[in-house]
Amino acid sequence: MSTDITQTAHYQTIENRAEARACSFTDFIEKLSALNRAPTFEEINEWMREVEMSAAEVQPHRGFKSATYARHRVFRNDYAEVLLLCWRPGQRTPIHDHNGSFGAVRVCEGVMWETIFSLDDEGRLRYETVREWHPADVTGADVPDIHQIGNPDVSGLDLVTLHLYAPPLGVLNTYRVGSAEIGHYTVDEFMDGAGI
Ligand SMILES: [Fe+2]
To answer: Domains in the chain, start-ordered, CATH in brackets?
Structure first.
């Protein structure tokens, strides 16, 4: 179960996993491979609730870095991108949005903390709320969305998360609390472990 302190309009909490049908990871990738259009936010969240990734399927992509969390691209076409992220305790993203892509994250193992932000009337970043996610939980990031996710240093556990983005991630925006300044990360930067 997730721990919701408050709900925001930007994020949709998905908690009906008990009702979700199972979908093998192979079928999940085949479904994405067959896409000939952009999937909807609802479809992305439904597919992430359904998919079941076994430990054997995670294993080829399961790898950690010491300085930052590790990103492993599992699939990418014109319409969607799947990443497996591996986090040691204390590793987290910068504060970022997805620059127009829908996104959904499913926790495979460990505990994920998510901090959510918004912009005030002057365009400055402000804190909104924090949520905690556990294995099989799915959190969907609608547009707009500004958040920071990571593995809390107090968890004592490695964290592995499955991410689906549509369209695939391009240049992403980064933020600082109290500032209206927006930075940018390119795909090469963040695939190299710089973050996001
Ligand atoms: Fe994100």
So the answer is: 12-190 (2.60.120.10)
**6 Cα to the center of ligand 1, angstroms:** 19
Q: What is the pLDDT of residue 172?
A: 83
How many CB atoms sit inside 10 A of residue 77's CB?
Answer: 15
Distance 33 CA to ligand 1 centre (A): 23
Determine contact, residues 133/116, Cβ cutoff 8 Å: no
Assess contact for 84 and 74: CB atoms under 8 A. Answer: yes
Q: Residue 9 Cα, ligand 1 centroid: separation in angstroms?
A: 16
Measured in Å, residue 96 CA sits from the centre of ligand 1 at: 6
pLDDT bucket at 6, cuts 50 / 70 / 90? very low
Residue 183: Cβ within 10 Å count: 13
Q: How confident is the model at residue 188 (pLDDT cuts 50, 70, 90)?
A: low
pTM comes to 0.85
